[in-house]
Structures are given as structure tokens and as C-alpha cells.
Design brief:
Radius of gyration of chain A: 20 Å
Low-confidence stretches of chain A: 1-17
Helix content of chain B: 25-40%
Helix content of chain A: 25-40%
Largest sheet of chain B: 8 strands, mixed
Structural class of chain A: alpha/beta
Low-confidence stretches of chain B: none
CATH architecture of the largest domain in chain B: 2-Layer Sandwich
CATH topology of the largest domain in chain B: Dihydrodipicolinate Reductase, domain 2
Mean pLDDT of chain A: 91
Structural class of chain B: alpha/beta
Strand order of the largest sheet of chain A: 8-9-10-7-11-12-13-14
Order of helices and strands of chain A: HEHEHEHEHEHEHHEHHHEEEEEEEHH
Number of strands of chain A: 14
Number of strands of chain B: 13
Oligomer: heterodimer
Distance between the termini of chain A: 51 Å
Radius of gyration of chain B: 19 Å
Largest sheet of chain A: 8 strands, mixed
Largest interface: A-B, 42 and 44 residues
Distance between the termini of chain B: 52 Å
Chain lengths: 360, 267
């Protein structure tokens, strides 16, 4: 176990009395309203103390729902030294800036929604600040914290070394269906229209889906396929994607779409000759528990029972354990950077593939 | 003309199994003349054996799991005087055979993905051929190829369906799991998923169609692909209908050869 610095210990000691961790949230959009606030309400030991958002009406209403203090600018939220954890749930292009600001303000534990940066340069800059300040950062790629994934890892043996095929398939209804089943969402921003035409537009569409949805699975994919080598095919479809590439002697298939059908289907698979791993994730937003997982080895199957906690709750339990000094982050900072670099590499290589019009 | 049809088999263990499943339709014989003949497709010269049986007066021939031949050799079999059925287990699944009427239109589809899990005792080329065939019969032919990569653990083949949908075919060597073929067609707001068991049992295939209102499981059938194949052959003979699976195999083989000839294909 990592020994935390003295100032962190003092914060911990202060909170040991109540065991309640004070949370500040930057951003009050649909993800906060329908995922993080309900998840925190289901868990014990958290109190949402402050929320910041540029929209005064939204932040006031959302803060009122959970008894938090509203702020309309981030520095005001960070100026208060009473926060144990800050969650960065602002728009994607502001993630790096807000993580950096939270660390510099002395926050010891930061949750950043994925991706935590939008370029290698930003990632390096944030990483330097994290090292300098000693803050712990958790990135919200929720499947890496899903109890179903963690349970399966205990059963797959040498699969990471022997794997030859990795597949991720995500089929979701799209729109706000699941947000509306989780809570009553206040005010949604209109989706940003895609820019460009032809191949440029296709590449932009693929990139948006990669950073918006596929990225949840990329830490899992990278564990089994650590490099991005030859891109075999990359396509941005109307609301869907297909990305097939070689990683050493392994093949990775990433595909999916927003279909408008009612039933979600989110799967992750990894196969070696002797072992197959299959995970069936629950949709985001709703409280449907963990992934179901099956590991098949040498003619036998192991299927750990699904848990009633999902990956988001897993993230918050991880944050609590770190804030209380019970353990170091499960995913260290260098792995977070490697995960981000993997996503950036995939996005850049896919873009080049599409723009080059490579058809073999 | 109706049965029972005399049936002669040169495939080990086949006759008792098939006769017990169709005891009123078939009866055993040692003669070829006037009989339905089962030929072992593992033979290197199964095409010659088919022609020889027909010359000896067989009224129909079933080739059990035919190994791949050159298209030139198959061409000779496309003009036979009597029905010739090539029994490829996944393609004889009742659901695949009846798929024509139920086929979900591929027009307007976005993406087709498929995974063929195969065992170490299966020929990967034959497994890929089967995957291409099932996709053609259930959904639509792969009209354009974009990439192919083969490795000891399987393959990745991408392209486009007739109608424009993107295609991603995966082959997965998975000795620890049961062999199967899965496919998923996304045609917003519909999704069709298919699961075929690539073993010898009568476990039914499943086709599910999900749309905005719910999910439909198409009727399942516990008839084994083997029994269904023999019923198909006897029906063709009884009704005097032509039946030649060779044309279909030839089309699929053409596509397989194009896949194997793709540049950049890893060994």
C-alpha cells in the first residue's frame, strides 16, 4: 500500500470522524444528473458539497437536488479547501484544464470523465502537474472499474499472453433514452453538427464515436492488444463505426452503432486457442448492475454472478478508497497516459486511413 | 415417385443414424442403381465418386462434408443428371435453408459483423467458406472486399455487402469453446442477430430481430441439419426437381479465392 503524504493524511483524519467524503463536481450536465448524482446517492459515505456550471439556472437547480452549493465559475469551487474529491465532468475540451486546476488548488483525489486530455501534449502537461502535486487521478472509463470485468480477471489465466483475437461491439439505442430512465434531466445542449464533407466528415464521425463511446472499452482492449500496428479497415458510418487492426500477431475488431432499437447490446470478447472471455455490459446511465462475464477454458465455463454495482459505482468506490488512504489507484498515472495515447493513436491512424482512401 | 428410397452409404456410421431418423422414407441397400448414395466428402476424389455413382444409376447423391476442390473440378459437377446435395452442416441448418423467405433486407443496413468460432480439428479455409456462404444465404452476398488478414488464431476479412453495408468477418480459433457462427446485421432501427451451432446436434439456431417495439425470436427447430439434408434430397428426387448445390459452392469458392488472393494478406 502506498503511504500518502502528511497533508493528505490530515484530511483523511478530519473525515475519519464522519467517514463522509465531500465531493465537488465541475459540470452539471446530463451525465452528472443521470449518472454521477444517482450513483453517489446510492452509495454511502459521500456528500456532494459543491457543483459548478456555466449555466446559473441549471447549476442552481442541480445543486438544490443534492443540497450542494452552486458556483458558476470553476475557480470559485476550487477556492474552497473543503473538498476531498473533485469530479471533472465539464465538456471534453476542458477536461485537461480543469484537472490541472483542481490539482493546483490542492485537491488530492480527482475523477476526470473520459478522455482526460484531447492530445498527447495535453496528456503530458496534465501528467506533469499530477506528478508535481501528488494528486491521485481516476479517469472515468467506467468499464475498467466494472465488478464484472474485475471478477472475470480472476479466472482468465494466461489469456493476456496467449490472446489472438479481441472484439468490442457496442449497439445502443442512442439519444437520451437511458438518461430519461435514470433521472429527470434539466436542459440538454443541442448536439454539435459534424463538420466537413466526404472522407473528412467520415473521419470526424469516427473520431467522435471513438472518444465518446468506444473509449470506455479501450483500457480493456489495450490490456489484451497493447499496440496499434497495421490498420486493416476504418470506417465512420452513419451513427456507427468499424475499426479493424493488427496488434502484433493479434487482431482487434471494434464495431458498433446507435440503432434506435430498444435493446442495448454491449459486448467485449478476448480469445486465445484455449480460453475465451465474454463480457456483456449493461448500458450506461441506468442502474442495472455489473457486466455479466463468462470465461471458457478447456471445455469448462465460469460465470461469476453479476453484482448490483456498475462501473460508475466502481469508480466512486475506488475514489473513496484512495481518499481514505486504503489503497493507491488501481490504474496508475502512467497507465492512464498510455490509455489516452492508445486512443489518440487509434483516432489519428484511423483518420489517416480514411483520408488516404486506402482500399485494398 | 415416392419412397421408401433405397439408400447406400460409404460414410462410416452415417447409415444407421440417418435410417433411424427417417425409417419410413429410407431403407438400406448395397446397390447403387436406383438408390440415393452418400459419399464421403473427405475423399480427395469425391467428385469422381459422384460421377461414378450417377453413371451406375444412382437417383441422387449426398456428399458428406465435401473438402474444397478447384472450381474447374466443380464445373464438371454443375450439369449432373440427378440431384447432388453437398452437405455442409451450417448451410443445412433448417433455419438457414428457410432463410430466403425470412431474410432481413440488407438494403439500408449499416454494418454486418460475424464471428466463426472453430476448433483446431477444423480446416480454417472451410470454416471461412462456410461463413461467407451463410452470410450470402441469410443476408446478402459480400460484394466488395477491402482487407484480409490471416493468422494462426483466425482471420479478419472486411468488405461491403451488396447494398452497401460494411462487413467485418472474424474467424476465431477457440478450442476451449463450442464451435459456432454468430452474425449481427445493424439496419437501424432493426438489429438481426443469428447464432448457429456448428456441431452435429439438433440444437436449434436462433435468429432474433430487435426493433423499436421489442424483440422477435423466429421459430426454432430441433431437427438436425443431417436429417434436414436427407429430407431435402428425398424431396427433390420425389418431386423430380433439379437440385445442385455445386453452383452455390462454386460462387462461394470464387469469393474465398478472391479473399485468399488479397494483397497484404499475412500468412
Amino acid at each position: 500500500m502506498r503511504i500518502l503524504p502528511k497533508d493528505v493524511q490530515s484530511v483523511m483524519i478530519r473525515d475519519m470522524d464522519s467517514r463522509t467524503l465531500r465531493v465537488g463536481i465541475i459540470g452539471a450536465g446530463p451525465v452528472v444528473q443521470s449518472i454521477h448524482l444517482p450513483a453517489l446517492a446510492r452509495l454511502e459515505g459521500f456528500r456532494v458539497a459543491r457543483i459548478a456550471d456555466v449555466s446559473p439556472d441549471v447549476v442552481r437547480a442541480v445543486a438544490e437536488r443534492c443540497g450542494a452549493v452552486p458556483h458558476t465559475v470553476v475557480p470559485d469551487l476550487l477556492a474552497h479547501a473543503d473538498l476531498d474529491i473533485v469530479a471533472v465532468c465539464s465538456p471534453q475540451h476542458l477536461h485537461a484544464e480543469h484537472v490541472e486546476a483542481a490539482c493546483r488548488a490542492g485537491v488530492r483525489v480527482v475523477l476526470c470523465e473520459k478522455p482526460f486530455a484531447s492530445s498527447r501534449e495535453e496528456a503530458e502537461r496534465v501528467s506533469a502537474v499530477v506528478r508535481e502535486t501528488g494528486a491521485a487521478v481516476v479517469v472515468g472509463a467506467m468499464h475498467a472499474y466494472d465488478p464484472g470485468w474485475l471478477a472475470a480477471a480472476e479466472h482468465w489465466g494466461a489469456l493476456e499472453e496467449e490472446v489472438h483475437t479481441v472484439r468490442s461491439s457496442i449497439v445502443m439505442p442512442g439519444g437520451s433514452r437511458f438518461e430519461d430512465l435514470a433521472t429527470e434531466v434539466l436542459e440538454r445542449a443541442a448536439p454539435r453538427p459534424l463538420e466537413g464533407t466526404g472522407a473528412e466528415r467520415e473521419a470526424t464521425m469516427l473520431e467522435a464515436l471513438l472518444y465518446g463511446l468506444v473509449i470506455h472499452d479501450l483500457p480493456l482492449v489495450r490490456r489484451f492488444a497493447p499496440t496499434v500496428d497495421r490498420i486493416l479497415d476504418a470506417r465512420g458510418l452513419a451513427g456507427g463505426w468499424l475499426l479493424v487492426y493488427e496488434s502484433g500477431d493479434r487482431i482487434v475488431h471494434l464495431s458498433g452503432a446507435m440503432t434506435g432499437g430498444w435493446k442495448p447490446d454491449w459486448r467485449f470478447e478476448a480469445h486465445s486457442t484455449s480460453t475465451s472471455l465474454e463480457l456483456r455490459f449493461q448500458p450506461s446511465y441506468v442502474w442495472a448492475g455489473s457486466a455479466g462475464s463468462t470465461v471458457t477454458r478447456d471445455g469448462s465455463e465460469v460465470s461469476p454472478l453479476p453484482r448490483d454495482r456498475n462501473g460508475y459505482e466502481g469508480e466512486w468506490e475506488e475514489l473513496a478508497a484512495i481518499a481514505r488512504g486504503e489503497r493507491a489507484p488501481r490504474i496508475p498515472a502512467d497507465a492512464l497516459i498510455a490509455d489516452l495515447e492508445y486512443a489518440v493513436e487509434l483516432a489519428e491512424r484511423s483518420r489517416s486511413f480514411i483520408l488516404d482512401g486506402v482500399v485494398r | 415417385m415416392t419412397g421408401p428410397w433405397p439408400m447406400r452409404s460409404e460414410v462410416d456410421g452415417l447409415a444407421p443414424r440417418v435410417l433411424s431418423a427417417l425409417p419410413q422414407t429410407l431403407r438400406s441397400t448395397e446397390r447403387t442403381d436406383g438408390a440415393l448414395v452418400a459419399i464421403d466428402g473427405e475423399r480427395a476424389d469425391w467428385d469422381i465418386a459422384v460421377l461414378a455413382s450417377l453413371e451406375e444409376g444412382a437417383v441422387g447423391v449426398l456428399v458428406e462434408r465435401p473438402r474444397l476442390l478447384s472450381t474447374e473440378r466443380l464445373d464438371v459437377l454443375t450439369r449432373t443428371s440427378a440431384p447432388v446435395l453437398l452437405r455442409r452442416p451450417l448451410l443445412d441448418d433448417p433455419l438457414v435453408l428457410e432463410a430466403g423467405a425470412r431474410r432481413v433486407a440488407a438494403d439500408g443496413a449499416l454494418l454486418l459483423t460475424s464471428e466463426r468460432r472453430f476448433g483446431a480439428d477444423e480446416d480454417p479455409a472451410a470454416a471461412l467458406l462456410e461463413q461467407l456462404s451463410v452470410v450470402r444465404r441469410l443476408i446478402a452476398p459480400v460484394a466488395r472486399l477491402r482487407a484480409a488478414s490471416f493468422h494462426p488464431g483466425g482471420w479478419a476479412v472486411t468488405g461491403d455487402l451488396e447494398g452497401g453495408a460494411a462487413v467485418d468477418l472474424a474467424g476465431v480459433l477457440a478450442d476451449g469453446a463450442l464451435p459456432s457462427l454468430r452474425a449481427q446485421l445493424l439496419r437501424p432501427p432493426e438489429r438481426m442477430s443469428v447464432l448457429l451451432h456448428a456441431d452435429a446436434t439438433a440444437r436449434p439456431a436462433e435468429v432474433r430481430i430487435v426493433d423499436v417495439d421489442g424483440e422477435l425470436l423466429l421459430p426454432t427447430s430441433y431437427e438436425s441439419a443431417e436429417r434436414r439434408a436427407w429430407r431435402r434430397l428425398t424431396a427433390a428426387v420425389s418431386e423430380g426437381r433439379p437440385l445442385c448445390d455445386v453452383d452455390q459452392l462454386r460462387q462461394d469458392l470464387d469469393l474465398l479465392q478472391r479473399v485468399e488472393a488479397m494483397p497484404g494478406r499475412a500468412a
